[in-house]
Amino acid sequence: MQFDFFPSKTMTVYLAKLFVVRILAVLAMLVLVLQMLDLLSESGKILGVAGNGQAQLLTYVSLRMPQLVARFLPYSALLATIITLATLNQNSEVIAMKAAGLSAHQVLAPLFLTAVLVAAASFTFNERVVTRATSTLKAWQAVDYGVVPPQSAVKSNVWLTDGDNILFAQTITGSGPGSVMNGVSWYRRDQAGMTQGIVRSPRATFANPGWKLDRPTGFQVQSAQVAPLSDGTVIAPSVTPAQIAISKVDPDAESLSELGRSIAAMKAAGRRTGELEGSWWHKISGPLAAVLMPLLGAVAAFGLARSGQLFVRAVIGMGLGFAFFVVDNAALAMGNFGGYPPFLAAWSAFVLFALIGETVLIRTEE
């Protein structure tokens, strides 16, 4: 038995089922509570827009809930690990397994296998659901919960330079020559940087070169007068769709492949990409955090429950798990500031706590 990594099939299925059920239960509890609190804070803004009602609230929930699931799945895996292992310890099941010849690693093996499957499901969910929901939600928030953008690939609150002038768009949909700007403001400035006039339009399309405006209005700073302009007015001739593609990259709203293409485009344009590269690596290391949780929470599985230290062990396991999330966020912040290389920023916490967890397990139980 000592030479088999997994215990028997019956034991493996039993432990895996316990772990999965508790992950789903804890995740459901966290998401429901946090979604309720978040909806209470945002419902006033949503219902404050004319025409919005229950359907818009449900739309917000459908867009916000995937973000909460993705963010708190690793926390759920940590809490589920502690609950599962503490229960097994309290019922003397761990003692029975070790008396049958299983090592500490073999007891945890079914949890590791389950965590790997959870991490794979989390990665797929992030790529297929969360990125699209995040893109749509940010675009909806950019228009103050007005009309829901019909496309998911939306850039919101984009600022672009046109020589001395500044071009702003609330949202940009489409790509390439088919790009469409909504909520456009073009600030015409002199060489000293002083604004001479502002041109606004609800919509602009690419005119190659420049952007053709629909129903534009112009504001002159000196005269403080607003006057309608002719349809088809073209502005910002130096702004191209390629410039838009690298103007604002939101790693949370792009899949792994899309973010990779955005990074390549920004590198070709000579832009700094360290922060985006760290986010690219973290799209892989983030879901894998669930694999660490059985290792960090393993301290709650061993030791005699009747010794009165079960609660202390559970607290230690919880402390190790939450310390991982703190260090992981700190490393990402250091990477964003350029203090860490992107790869190190995304993976340092994972490797560090894998070594810490393995050391604690070997020194105390093996």
Automatic annotation (TrEMBL):
Coiled-coil regions, chain positions: none
InterPro entries reported in the protein's UniProt record: LptG (IPR030923), LptG/LptF_permease (IPR005495)
Transmembrane segments: 12-37, 68-86, 107-125, 284-304, 311-332, 344-362
Subcellular location: Cell membrane
Alphabetically ordered keywords of this record: Cell membrane, Membrane, Transmembrane, Transmembrane helix
Membrane topology listed for this record: Multi-pass membrane protein
Alphabetized NCBIfam families for the sequence: LptG_lptG (TIGR04408)
Name of the featured protein: LPS export ABC transporter permease LptG
Origin species: Novosphingobium tardum
